[in-house]
Design goal:
This protein has about 350 residues and is an alpha/beta fold. About 35% of the residues lie in helices and about 10% in strands. It is built from nine helices and seven strands; from the N terminus they run αββαβααβααβαβαβα. The longest helix has 28 residues.
Length: about 350
């Protein structure tokens, strides 16, 4: 369920455009309020995190008779498309096209203020005026840029490490704030809390993992980026909900070094290390047996690499999505068989 901005937020966004995520070219993204304003009284004297809490509290009070019975899990929205990430690859208006690397979203005045403070604390105040200026455009590829290229790329230099640490930390802190409220508000209601993390699998085979970095996931060929997210969720007893479960590596564009299976495997190990439940969903609508077989395999955490996940399964799976195509006779028949096998679990 997606909730549009209320009149209060829309009015304040019109008055203060910097409440929106902003890229280095001044393009605004209104999918979610900038993390830089999280704890500032920018909404008629109230902080965005307070408004998020107000909404969750109102939801709890209005649906309390259904919580723990009809409603057994609440996925807490953390960003664009409900996911904990920056809106680095906006597809709606054609700004971004797959498999572009996306763009950093930290050029509103509130985020830049945080960046300046971080640079001063780091002892490099000259680094606080802007994000990377050599990171290409939304539809660039890693090797087209000085920042993300393999050889001598800025991502692996001191400035790059400083910036990416700050950028990803902002996202983690946002998750901490929202989950702290959600945990308190839904305490003793009988519902589980989950958070959706995007499955950014393109250019995964490169050293820099550029699309993950622009989205706020500091995961590279040299750095494990999903354990910090999993540990943050574990602190609040939240479920790690991950996408692209239906995909196989060889089905995706190999020139873009896509590797969804390897990514899901990395996330499975991260959640195991953090002792946090892992749930999944498919990223794209699929109605074929091949996709269903992959979902069954991934949900059973059966990756063939080793036996580390032998006695562990995903705690749940969300199927996207119910529409007229699903109810066509052949598609529905395959779906029924798939659901029966999912219900059998690892034994299927």
């Amino acid at each position: 369920m997606y909730i549009l901005y209320g009149k209060l937020v829309c009015s304040d966004l019109n008055k203060d455009p910097d409440l929106a995520y902003t890229d280095q070219w001044g393009r605004r993204n209104h999918e979610y309020i900038s993390l830089g304003a999280d704890t500032l009284p920018v909404l008629k004297g109230r902080m965005p995190v307070q408004c998020y809490s107000d909404f969750m509290r109102a939801f709890r009070d209005n649906f309390k008779h259904l919580l723990g019975d009809t409603i057994v899990e609440i996925q807490v929205g953390m960003g664009p498309a409900g996911e904990l990430r920056y809106p680095s690859y906006p597809e709606q208006d054609g700004t971004w096209r797959f498999p572009g690397i996306g763009a950093f979203q930290c050029y509103d005045k509130y985020s830049l203020s945080s960046l300046r403070a971080a640079a001063e604390a780091y002892g490099k105040p000259e680094w606080g005026g802007t994000g990377p200026t050599d990171a290409g455009h939304y539809n660039s590829w890693p090797e087209d840029t000085l920042f993300f290229k393999h050889e001598n790329g800025g991502w692996n230099k001191e400035y790059g490490k400083y910036f990416l640490t700050w950028y990803s930390k902002m996202l983690l802190q946002h998750g901490e704030r929202i989950l702290s409220s959600a945990k308190y508000i839904f305490k003793d209601t009988g519902v589980k809390i989950s958070v959706k993390i995007a499955g950014i699998h393109w250019h995964y085979g490169t050293s820099s993992h550029a699309p993950e970095l622009t989205a706020g996931y500091y995961n590279t060929g040299l750095r494990e980026g999903y354990i910090p997210i999993a540990e943050m969720l574990a602190r609040h007893n939240a479920i790690f909900n991950f996408t692209c479960i239906e995909m196989r590596d060889h089905e995706q564009r190999q020139d873009a070094l896509c590797a969804p299976e390897k990514l899901v495997y990395q996330v499975a190990l991260a959640t195991q290390a953090a002792e946090v439940p892992l749930a999944g969903e498919n990223a794209l609508p699929r109605y074929d047996d091949y996709a269903y077989a992959q979902i069954l395999k991934a949900s059973a955490l059966n990756f063939d690499q080793n036996n580390e996940a032998e006695n562990r399964e995903m705690c749940s799976f969300t199927y996207l999505r119910m529409n007229s195509e699903l109810f066509k006779a052949d598609n529905w028949g395959r779906f029924v068989v798939f659901v029966q096998k999912m219900g059998e679990g690892r034994s299927s």
